[in-house]
């Protein structure tokens, strides 16, 4: 999935997604929740899997 597609599904900006992936930003709980819902996974899965 591209950052653009994830952004569209989650409502999180592509710049924020990129910064999280690069370790430049730490996501808040609401951001994690939005990303998890968009990816159809649990929030805890975002910490236990390598994407």
UniProtKB/TrEMBL annotation:
Superkingdom as given in the UniProt entry: Bacteria
Gene Ontology MF annotations: DNA binding; DNA-binding transcription factor activity
PROSITE patterns tied to this protein: HTH_CROC1
GO cellular component: cytosol
Keywords linked to the UniProt accession: DNA-binding
InterPro entries from the UniProt entry: Cro/C1-type_HTH, Lambda_DNA-bd_dom_sf, TransReg_Diox_bact_type
Membrane-spanning residues: none
Domain HTH cro/C1-type: 1-46
Pfam families cross-referenced by the UniProt entry: HTH_3 (PF01381)
PANTHER family: HTH-TYPE TRANSCRIPTIONAL REGULATOR (PTHR46797), METHYLPHOSPHONATE SYNTHASE (PTHR46797:SF1)
Protein name: Helix-turn-helix
């Amino acid at each position: 999935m591209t950052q653009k597609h994830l952004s569209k599904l989650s409502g999180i900006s592509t710049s924020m997604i990129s910064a999280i992936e690069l370790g430049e930003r730490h996501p808040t709980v609401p951001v994690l929740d939005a990303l998890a819902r968009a990816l159809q996974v649990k929030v805890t899965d975002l910490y236990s899997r390598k994407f």
